[in-house]
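In pairs, describe these two lines:
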Amino acid sequence: MAARKPIVAGQFYPGTEKQCRIEIAECIADGPVTGKLPEKIVAGIVPHAGWTFSGNLAAMVFGAIEKANKSVDTFVIFGATHSHFGSAAAVYDKGSWFTPLGEIKIDEELAEAIVKKSKGAQSNPDVHKYEHSIEVQIPFIQYIFKNAKIVPIMTSPAEYAVQLGTDVAECIKSASDKKIVCIGSTDLTHYGPRYGFNPQGDGESGIEWAKNVNDRAFINLAIEMRAERVLNESMQSQNACGPGAAAATIAAAKALGKTKGVLLAHTHSNEVMERKFSQTSSESVGYAAIVY
């Protein structure tokens, strides 16, 4: 039985159980769920930066799911790939994951069904070893949904992503005895010299363009549930680092009957730095919290 150990605990989020619980509580308090939510949430898009920068937005999505759904049996988590770009999504299909909050089990039954159903998915736990985009979400699930299981799926920005999402939705429909929610993990525009992307120049005006124009193009397509356009637009405009994960999530939500997403919050790292530390930077990374 495979057991994945955390690789970014102590970096992207705290390395001890006590501090994790303290910081998750702070993230929840810093990202209260307000406004009208869908009656039932089937999917969400979350950022995956360090909790200091985007933990409150991730907490907002999971908090909205708890508020609307009460309980969840399994989260299918589509992760952004930063180092692996294969011809199929990599499913972690057996065993469990560990974080400072303990063990969370894989929904092996659902994982097996996804691998069998979708040509765009294959069993490949090794790809998950050094990727953080899914790991940083797990403690929120453990904290809020104590009995939930997970199906982690690393999803490259490839054509298979949209069909993968549709296939996952069909597997969810077949598992009618379970409450299952899909999560897509992606940050938005990485802007500035450090990232080699600054088409509107350095400084405040460029960062504002990244948020209000480039990020917004992604957000609008995501809300409108245009999965194929999200995939293509993100590759052209560099406004998401996990477009495959986002496209799969949107496609799954659409196949599960949703017609529009709800934006809960949108910010970027420079705004967070200014609010929390009274500092600014010449770079920024965008973050959005969306539910369906």
